[in-house]
Amino acid sequence: MSCSNVKDLCPFFVGDTLNYSLVFKHADNSPVDVSGMVLTFTMKINKSDADGAVTSLQRAVAFPVDGDSANGTGNIEVTAKATNKLVADRWYQYDFQLVSGANKYTIGIGRVFVKERVRIA
Fold first, then answer.
1. Domain range enclosing 70
2. What is the CATH number of the domain that holds 54?
3. Per the domain annotation, does 18 fall within a domain?
4. β-pairing, 38-44 with 18-23?
5. Domain membership flag for residue 36
6. Of residues 70 and 2, more confidently modeled
7. What is the pTM of this model?
8. What's residue 7's pLDDT?
9. How many domains does the chain have?
10. Which of 28, 35, 10, 34 shows the shortest CA–CA distance to 20?
11. Per-residue model confidence (pLDDT) at position 88
12. pLDDT at position 32
């Protein structure tokens, strides 16, 4: 697998719940069996920021052994509580990494803009 998907994600608001549905395929378009693999989504203002920094977030999900995973499909959700701590009106760097045993594959990278919510006084 290689990282051929470099793009900006759709902007979202601080405090939004994010849900990403992904489909994993080999170069020949056959599904990648992701059963038991772990998908990690990381966001940072700067790529050099430490994982776990106050202004970053990281979410991981282990794919179950089931038909969806065997067919290369899976979802990852980032909670509203997690996005609530992000700094508004800033670009963040993100990546998706798929981990299988000792192997780690960066499968998507890019930027995403985090917007400020409308507040009522």
1. 12-115
2. 2.60.40
3. yes
4. unpaired
5. yes
6. 70
7. 0.87
8. 83
9. 1
10. 10
11. 94
12. 94
